């Protein structure tokens, strides 16, 4: 299976993708308090920011990703969280933080931050492995560092 993720030089990408990252960094560093303020400072529309904010990331200086944040929707069933944790362990990840919401309408939201420095597969294979678990409804890669 071909990877869904690429490292590319920003020179071949449209300028607005770099501006999306800059806007996100302004918000994260509290240099802007709203998305509107951040997007105005970098010169992009709010629509552009929302369209790409979850899909473009700055590569770390070392060139090796070491942390990832995943949002997962689980079925409200015994063993769902255990299956996710077991899968992550088998793929050589370490959990840095974990937060699970109270199940609503038969689904529970799970937010994980992971140390992936020892990851045994590519990040997209990790996502696919989790998506293939029977009690996992959806997996989203929120951030990669």
Notes on the protein architecture:
- Belongs to the UPF0735 family.
- The chain is built from 5 helices and 4 strands.
- With 145 residues, the chain is of the alpha+beta class.
- The chain has 2 domains: 41 residues, no CATH class; 78 residues, 2-Layer Sandwich (Alpha-Beta Plaits), CATH 3.30.70.
- A 4-stranded antiparallel sheet has the order 2-3-1-4, covered by helices on one side.
- The protein starts with 14 loop residues before the first helix and ends with a strand.
Produce a short descriptive summary.
By secondary structure, this protein is α+β, with helices and mostly antiparallel strands. The chain is 34% helix and 23% strand. The protein is built from 5 helices and 4 strands; from the N terminus they run αααβαββαβ.
Number of domains: 2
Assembly form of the protein: single chain
Strand order of the largest sheet: 2-3-1-4
Principal-axes shape call? globular
Give the termini distance in whole angstroms: 23 Å
The radius of gyration over CA amounts to 17 Å
Discrete helix count: 5
Top-tier CATH class of the largest domain: Alpha Beta
SSE order in H/E notation?
HHHEHEEHE
Structural class: alpha+beta
- The poorly predicted ranges are none
Number of E-state strands: 4
The proportion of residues in beta strands is: 15-25%
| CATH-defined fold name of the largest domain | Alpha-Beta Plaits
Mean pLDDT: 89
Instruction: Please name the CATH architecture of the largest domain.
Output: 2-Layer Sandwich
């Amino acid at each position: 299976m071909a990877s869904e993720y690429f490292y590319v030089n920003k020179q071949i990408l449209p300028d607005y993708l770099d501006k999306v990252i800059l806007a996100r960094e302004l918000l994260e560093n509290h240099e802007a308090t709203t998305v509107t303020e951040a997007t105005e400072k970098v010169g992009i529309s709010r629509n552009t920011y929302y369209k790409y904010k979850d899909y473009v990331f700055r590569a770390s200086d070392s060139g090796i990703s070491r942390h990832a944040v995943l949002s997962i929707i689980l079925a409200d069933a015994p063993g769902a969280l255990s299956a996710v944790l077991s899968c992550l362990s088998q793929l050589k990840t370490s959990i840095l933080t974990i937060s699970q919401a109270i199940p609503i309408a038969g689904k529970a939201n799970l937010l994980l931050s992971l140390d992936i420095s020892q990851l045994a597969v590519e990040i997209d294979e990790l996502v696919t492995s989790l998506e293939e678990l029977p009690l996992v409804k959806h997996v989203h890669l929120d951030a990669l560092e």
